[in-house]
Amino acid sequence: xxxxxxxxxxxxxxxxxMGSGMARNLARSGLDTRAWNRTRAKAEPLAAxxxxxxxxxxxxxxxxxxxLTMLYDGQAALETMRQAQDGxxxxxxxxxxxxxxLDGLAALVxxxxxxxxxxxxxxxxxxxxxxxxxxxxxxxxxxxTARAVVRPVFDAIGSRTAWVGxxxxxxxxxxxxxxxxxxxxxxxxGAAEAxxxxxxxxxxxxxxxxxxxxxxxxxxxxxxxxxxxxSGDLEPSFATxxxxxxxxxxxxxxxxxxxRMDVAAAGAERFRRAIAQGHGDEDMAASxxxxxxxDRG
Length: 297
What we know:
alpha/beta, Rossmann fold, N-(1-d-carboxylethyl)-l-norvaline Dehydrogenase, domain 2, 2 domains, six-stranded parallel sheet, three-stranded mixed sheet
């Protein structure tokens, strides 16, 4: 790679729940920002914030210093980059922020090697609100020569970048993201099941909150997720459908390394049931409904 100056232009591929906020922050930071989304209509509002919305991935990446992918999974990222390949030039820095899993990342590494791209594995920690406010935590692994290039991009979308590896190939960032997500998903299910049991036993949830208040069992995340369920406001900060995908990536990563992830596997099944009940596009707190045979909860 010959280009080591900070990026001045970035192509964002994927403007969904989190990508749209990331695109706005990239443009506000002064970067020449192009964006593509599979459904263009969902990306169109970004034009009002100075983002150039393109018809194709190849058009978005043409001439960009950094390509940032924020797509559903590794397969979607790979397919989109294949569509973009005519606009890619050797040496382009590709920051992949998708939670791709170990097998998914391996395919992305192979594509980057084939196209002579400089891959930075950079999954992000956070949900829609941190994405909109530029407060994501970026977990990054990639060559030292790419750090100056991606710094303006990561600074625009996140409050902090944690460099955890020198190469995307060792999957250090993805492995850490899977560990963190396993904890987040378990907390989500724990909140959901506690509320469901309270419902079934006729216990006032406030009594539960009062009993654990200010003690070691209290948890801010519990209160946020419980609040969503109790208020009925399941506007997604992290969708149930995506949470199921991540849960299955966690189970697969464990199996690949001789670790049984029984709770994650059960959690994936809870998400599947919630999706079957029609909660796939709602917040993953909808795990609550998986405790009931119908939506009586």
